[in-house]
Structure prediction request, 116 residues.
Amino acid sequence: QVQLVESGGGLVQPGGSLRLSCAASGSTFGINRMGWYRQAPGKERELVATITSGGSSNYGDSVKGRFSISRDNAKNTVTLQMNSLKPEDTAVYYCYVVEYSHAVYWGQGTQVTVSS
Prediction:
């Protein structure tokens, strides 16, 4: 089993920045891909960013150029740096891990609110 603990969510003004972190623990030896999804009220869950064990990243269209994902394989952490935040970025952000076995694990989610 893999356990994921997210941190860094909160309230930020439009144009501001926020950094989310996710720490994996438990049976972390099989972790392949890590990343973030988000879900806003009344919307379906959407991809924010993913990163492979080798450091290759992909981003959802709505966050390209504004968000950056990184990971520390030794510490089993993944970080999402969010810049130029917009009100439409308001959502619950979920960290996830995909193992080489294709098993998927999710964090509990952390609220990000972008508002004046």
In short: The mean pLDDT is 96. The chain has no helices and eleven strands.
